[in-house]
Amino acid sequence: MSRNILKSLRNIFNYQRNIFLAFEGNGIRCFATTNITFANYGKTCTVPLPEKQQTISDHTKREVNHHSNLASTWWDINGPLAPLHHMNAIRVPFIRDGLVTRGFVDPKLVNTIDVLKNQQILEVGCGGGILTEELARLGAKMTAIDLSNELINVARERLKQDARLLENITYKIEPIEVHMKDKSNFYDAVVISEVLEHIDDKVPFLNACVQCAKVTRF
């Protein structure tokens, strides 16, 4: 890895803070990358969810439009999103090892190329699928959602290039609050990476994400 890439990663991680949201009391697994600190967000914290789909805020619309405008260069590893591509070297092991360490992966699969085989993982705010694809290549059954039509179209086009990805990935244009209604207590893990800084109302968003993760007992 070149010095420029390492410098880029260092700058990003100086700005961002990786958080593994592990709700010990009920076994919820939610991986997130964020630049905020949640004070007093304990195991018993609950946030009421809206009964009806919320209207997308102007802030969210601006963020979606901004990222949609990058669709044509999303998979250019030397383009404006190069840092996201380079961060997979850190993000993928972080998620993989988190699931392995907590005992959610079949021991027979540890240290194999299919280490995440049959793990149902939701990625919220997947964009064009940079992280989604790498987790799917480890065997995970990925459901990836985003609000951008343009970025989901880019991600879906790439599925045509790899039969295994086509089998392991489902992309949806859908807000998490809607997705949660049909997929509550469903996923082995929920991934939110490089997304929270673009969300204006973070706590209800995170609560909806957490609702999608399986509730298990230890």
From TrEMBL:
It comes from the Eukaryota. One of its GO terms (molecular function) is polyprenyldihydroxybenzoate methyltransferase activity. The keyword Transmembrane does not apply. Residues 122-214 form the Methyltransferase type domain. Keywords: Methyltransferase, S-adenosyl-L-methionine, Transferase, Ubiquinone biosynthesis. GO terms for biological process: methylation. GO terms for cellular component: mitochondrion. InterPro entries: Methyltransf_11, SAM-dependent_MTases_sf, UbiG_MeTrfase. PANTHER family: METHYLTRANSFERASE, UBIQUINONE BIOSYNTHESIS O-METHYLTRANSFERASE, MITOCHONDRIAL. This is Methyltransferase type 11 domain-containing protein.
